[in-house]
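Aim 2, interim progress. The first record below pairs a target sequence with its structure tokens.
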Amino acid sequence: MLSKNSYRIIAAVIGWTTLVVQYGDVVASGEHANLLAATVYFFGYFTILTNILVALALTAPFLPPTTRFYNFFTKPSVRAAIALYILVVAVVYHTLLRHLWEPQGIQLATDIAFHSVMPALYLFDWIFFAAKRPMRYVHIPYWVIYPALYGVFTIIRGALSGVYPYPFLNVTELGLVGVFINMVGFTTLYAVGGAVFIAAGHRLSTPETTS
């Protein structure tokens, strides 16, 4: 059986490789005016941003303990929040978005990695390897800040560019009220999910589990 460190190295390599391949595919597609436009498009997806967080969390334990990245990404509350985010990415994609397109080739490979492989790898890491204490329910308001800010950013970006990466945030199609209702729904989902993760973390935690 793989050790914790070996597992995390393999998972981190898969995560970073998928991100690099996807970015290269976006740039090489020729669908964007220039490199800046392609880069903005790439980083405009919650899936991409969350997979970056996953890759950082898998990499951080190998950094010197004195670094800010290590101190931040090895916090039990941070690792649990990222587990929640990537689980929501997988669930929302497979229930609401998967039917909207038919990826082929490289896009199919990165699609599977982003929405199935990395969520499974990171959740396994969180369940079996990650420290889970101290986590408190007062952390939940902080956990919803990231998805809430993403929603606000996407609305502003869409108003300026007309581009909305997700249909449930498309103000042009749903109107501000419709998008606001969706954002409230997602915020509630993250809050409830956070409570579930914290409760599960308390049940799963063991004194010897670290980072």
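The second target in this work package is listed in the same format:
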Amino acid sequence: MPEEFQNLHISQHPLIQDKLCDLRQKSTPHFRFKQLLEEISQFLFYEASKTLSTRKVTIETPLENMEGEQLTREILLVPILRAGLGMVNGITQLWEGSRVGMLGMYRDHDTLQPVDYYLRLPENLEPFTVFLLDPMLATGGSAVSAITRLKERGARELMMLSLICAPEGVRAVSEHYPEVPIYAAALDRQLNEKGYILPGLGDAGDRYFGV
């Protein structure tokens, strides 16, 4: 992996790679695609969350008091609409206490640049651990724009989860925000002339929602 991609963490977990293989296949029906995307998102969240900080707390069991550990920050999931919603659906099954923001962006098919159309977040993100969610990190334009919005709202503990990355997207995020870690299941070869990841899996949103 290129030295410039030091913020990229690719999972080699056999279960993730097996599910990703099924996810990529053209013949996978959308209801199975939906299930697989949610399951892989859960695994990626589990791996990324190992870096979260905890604090000591005293609790009472049915038999006695003891010292346990709890997270120091609330978790805020911020999907880039619409495909990122699939990742939210998976992660909230694993960590039901997550809050969920919304960030609506689409990529202009002519310029390949991100266009904002919706933003719904807490006023101050400093108290949260923020997970930016987008199944495909392609050109990186939407990711960089999204990270900028989140940092403008005060996000300090921030990471990105993507199923599949293109080198171009990782490079864009690394150049603008090298401090933001990216957790992914695969780093693919390149983008085509339309900005789709190769070999990729097609349009994640279309395949997840079936339209």
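The helical segments are 14-24, 30-48, 84-94, 141-152, 167-176, 204-209. This observation will shape the mutagenesis plan for the next reporting period.
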